[in-house]
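User: Structure with nicotinamide-adenine-dinucleotide, tokens only please.
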Amino acid sequence: MTNQKTTRIPRMTLSRLPLYYRTLCNLADEGTRRIKSADLGTATQVEPTTIRRDFSYFGELGRSGYGYDVGHLIRIFGEILEVDEPQYLALVGVGNLGRALLKNNFRRNPNMAIVCAFDADPGVIGEEINQVIVQPMAELGATIASLQINTAISTVPSHSLQQVSAKLVDNGIRSILSFAPEPVILPEFVNMRYLDLTSEVLNLLLLSERGQAAVAK
Amino acid sequence: MTNQKTTRIPRMTLSRLPLYYRTLCNLADEGTRRIKSADLGTATQVEPTTIRRDFSYFGELGRSGYGYDVGHLIRIFGEILEVDEPQYLALVGVGNLGRALLKNNFRRNPNMAIVCAFDADPGVIGEEINQVIVQPMAELGATIASLQINTAISTVPSHSLQQVSAKLVDNGIRSILSFAPEPVILPEFVNMRYLDLTSEVLNLLLLSERGQAAVAK
DNA sequence: CACGAAATGTGACGAGTTTAACAAAACGGA
DNA sequence: TCCGTTTTGTTAAACTCGTCACATTTCGTG
Ligand SMILES: NC(=O)c1ccc[n+]([C@@H]2O[C@H](COP(=O)([O-])OP(=O)(O)OC[C@H]3O[C@@H](n4cnc5c(N)ncnc54)[C@H](O)[C@@H]3O)[C@@H](O)[C@H]2O)c1
Ligand SMILES: NC(=O)c1ccc[n+]([C@@H]2O[C@H](COP(=O)([O-])OP(=O)(O)OC[C@H]3O[C@@H](n4cnc5c(N)ncnc54)[C@H](O)[C@@H]3O)[C@@H](O)[C@H]2O)c1
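Assistant:
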């Protein structure tokens, strides 16, 4: 467990990588070959200094007086984000939100896809959405084992989350993204992440009121 | 730079308020009258010390040797979050995601609701979803003016975001939550917030790989 | 009413993160 | 090739946030 040789990359830097990657891909699509931190800063709304520091954790990616090569950055970040490695996901809870995710199914990311879906409601089981057939919960274990999936998205209601996530973990899932804000108790090795749409809206409203005076950067 | 004007409330504290509020409401529903930071900590998965520090920014809300009065906390936080003030929202882009938001429509928060929806697709316009009729973009200005709305959710694709958000701002919207990760250029007084589901999943995968190589160099 | 128990509110510290400032490096035109 | 300009990578300082530790306050009971 003494894992000291790997250069430790700050959590905040890692969390900005997807943003950088996506923005760079857009720029490349528009034909942009090179970019300087200042311009990438206006595109991403991140301070140029922060961008340069972030990039520096992955080596000397740029050239002074020139900037960064967009293609090179995309290659490097794509490798770190493992966008080439197919990332298969399971979905539990095919309601309003689950259905939306399934219909879109990350169509812009060819290597990321929900490949199986589960629900407890007999009225939904068997339905085919975007080439994925909704399966009963009883088949969850066998399916994710055979597909070797270790990451799941949960769009079940709060009151089912504890039970559902425990079942997911029992069957080998190690990372869960939940859209229900219910805190759950799980083994420490499980990576649980919440995405509460209601809180996001509340935060938007909060920050827009109070941040008024103080945001003088 | 002596910025000791109002007691500035840390951003992280504010972002936890919705979690506290919801948890406290659940506790109240179950009949809990009082709570100590330790128990609220296990319920929210937040360190008790952090909870006490957070609460302290809003005054001395608790009593030593006793804990906090649940009803009192709910009142205080409800006021800060303005849950009593109805928060009406506009939605633009009634696709997969927009439809899901509209169908659910924050049903657990009685004072927060999407009250109007807009789309450019004639095939969607006129459709009624959860008592909201999808309107054409041409009516956006008049509708949000008459309803006095200043906050919007955008679920239009990336390539439409700049155009759509500019139109929203022109018509009085001051806060936007976008599900498309496209950076846009808007006046400074606009509060723009992104919620990129793809990035969220990538982050989940990235963080779960801590301990494995991936970033060695 | 007094006293041990319980729980809060906060000074202090440290880890993590952002930002300003600048020296060094590389570009590109003459 | 030379030189002013541009832009990076990084050092150091500022800032934010979470947690320890504990003095303080209040509870609840004998
Ligand atoms: N859709 C939104 O706009 C929105 C907004 C805020 C929060 N949320 C949260 O997202 C979550 C999902 O929202 P939704 O609108 O899709 O809800 P939904 O009710 O439409 O869908 C939930 C699905 O989960 C299934 N389910 C329930 N219990 C289950 C179990 N034990 N095992 C397997 N499947 C089970 C149900 O059959 C249903 O299909 C909810 O927790 C909700 O609070 C949604
Ligand atoms: N649904 C997902 O799982 C998912 C995942 C990751 C990202 N996203 C992002 O969320 C956004 C919405 O996703 P979706 O699946 O709902 O897409 P969608 O294509 O189903 O819906 C988009 C809607 O916006 C409308 N629209 C397009 N241009 C418009 C314009 N100029 N004015 C008004 N309306 C316009 C369309 O008519 C359509 O109804 C996309 O940017 C997508 O990249 C979605």
